[in-house]
Write a structure and sequence with these properties.
By secondary structure, this protein is mainly alpha-helical. Helices cover 60% and strands 5% of the residues. It has 6 helices and 2 strands, in the order ααααββαα. It has helices spanning 4-34, 39-42, 53-71, 86-101, 130-155, 162-166, and strands spanning 115-118, 126-129. β1 and β2 (126-129) form a beta hairpin. The longest helix is centred in the first third of the chain and has 31 residues, at 4-34. It is globular and about 50 Å long. The two termini are 21 Å apart.
Length: 169
């Protein structure tokens, strides 16, 4: 039987990361077709105090790899987050998808009760059960950054809709 924690995380993360990849491809194609500098999209923000598109994608990737790693009891890999182009972001998403896909349902057994420690050893340290981490922190954070990436591009004229956001399911 597949762990419910696995089912609530891995397929969802894969669906949304794949959809994000497709939305980024549409943005890159739009920039090429219209002769727009891709950096106009990569550096776009919804508001001046928010992160630009590139950072939103990086953070979505960070949450995806962190969620599966922590729930499986594995170390969270540290990646540089130096992406500056659409190709770089596509490579990051591909690397993240490969990482997410590297875990088995068996690694998630008993993970709902596994203690997850965020920001260990700092004043912001927080301890959560695996269930609380996934449902109340990890997935909401991941969805925020995927949604914000989508919204940045939609706001900037990329013709995407809910089907693009949702991807294949």
């Amino acid at each position: 039987m597949t762990s419910s924690m696995y089912s609530a995380s891995v397929p969802v993360l894969k669906q949304m990361l794949s959809a994000l990849s497709d939305v980024l491809k549409k943005a890159e194609d739009h920039a090429t077709a219209k002769g727009i500098d891709p950096n106009a999209y990569l550096g776009a923000r919804l508001f001046p105090d928010m992160f630009p598109l590139t950072r939103q994608v990086q953070i979505a990737s960070d949450f995806a790899k962190g969620i599966v790693s922590r729930l499986a009891g594995a170390d969270v890999p540290s990646w540089e987050n130096t992406e500056t182009t659409f190709a770089d972001l596509q490579a990051l998403i591909a690397k993240t998808l490969a990482h997410v896909d590297s875990f088995t349902p068996e690694q998630f057994e008993q993970s709902e009760a596994r203690e997850i420690v965020l920001r260990p050893g700092t004043p912001k340290e927080k301890k959560l059960s695996g269930n609380a981490y996934l449902l109340h922190y990890g997935l909401p954070q991941f969805f925020f950054h995927v949604t914000t990436s989508y919204a940045i591009l939609r706001h900037n004229g990329i013709e995407v809709g809910k089907r693009d956001y949702m991807g294949a399911y």
